[in-house]
Every structure is written in C-alpha cells, then in structure tokens.
Amino acid sequence: MSAVGNVGPATDHPAAEPEEDEEGPGLWGSFGVALRLIVGWFSIAIAVLNLLVELDRSDGTPDGAYVFFHFIVLVGGVLLVSLAWIGARPGILGYVVGAAVMVAGVVVSAIPANDTVCCMTAFSERHGYPFTILARDAGSRWHVDSQHLIADLLFWGYLGLVVLLTVALTRRVAGLEDDES
C-alpha cells in the first residue's frame, strides 16, 4: 500500500485511465534553470555586499553611479531567482523590447563623455555608464576596458529584464481584463 492509499496497480480499477506522465524539463532545461538561479543568487550576494561597503565609505559620499549599478544588480538578481514564481510569458514583443533596452543602453551611454568618480581617471575623455568602457587622451588611441564593458552589459541587461517583465505582466493584465469582459 502506498502513502496515498492505492492498494494495487492502476489496472485493478477499470474506470481509472492511466495518466500520461508529463516530461520533465530535460537536461538543457534543468541546466538553464540552475544557471539562472546561480547567477541570480550570485548577483544578490555581490550587490548586497558592495552596497553595504559603498554606503559605509569613510569619506561619507558614495558614488551615485556605483550605488545605482549595484541596486539594479540586486533587483536583477531577485528577478532571476523569482522568475518561476512570477510566471511571466513575455512573448516576442517582450524579448525584443528587453534586448533593445540592453543594446541601446550600452550604445547610447557610450556616446556622451562623462565624469563619473569611478574608472579610468587617467584618461581625459571617458565614455560609458555606469562604468567607463571607452577612454582616451586627446589625440591618442581609444582604450576599451573589457571588464567594465561586461559590467555595463550586465547592468543594461538587468534593466532590459525589468522592462521585459513589465511588458509580460502588462500583457497578462490586459489578457485578464479581456477575459472578464
């Protein structure tokens, strides 16, 4: 006898049809979920640690871009960890808008020169937000910082994820309103 009270196999009950087993997510689906959760929890841990350190600076003035970066990484990590609970179905529009935010954010933020506190202060001309990804001195060659480029891609990618989920939840709410009418 099993824990649910079945005495024998399902064939003993002629009225009971054997249910088709749903297939699990498979190897690649499980790998994707595991990777999403690892990146999400890692982002949360790093963001919390760096926010605490930055907000406890000895000079008392935290770098606004640095704090905003880690706040977005924290939000993105929380969203990655809770994606299954949110259950959003973004559709093509959501993916396109989310990817557009990421690409446009990196490209558009690299156009104007900035004077953030962080990153490559040895160069007179710096571009990128929240971190400097392109820099040069007057008349010299451009320098691309690959580590800051990856950090900027993460930042704009998480902002794209926020927009993607906003589109998905807006579509869900619109679908619920259409069902009610």
TrEMBL record:
Disordered as annotated region, ranges: 1-24
Keyword Transmembrane in annotation: yes
Membrane-spanning segments: 33-53, 65-86, 92-111, 149-169
UniProt superkingdom: Bacteria
UniProt-recorded name of the protein: Membrane protein YphA (DoxX/SURF4 family)
Keywords associated with the record: Membrane, Transmembrane, Transmembrane helix
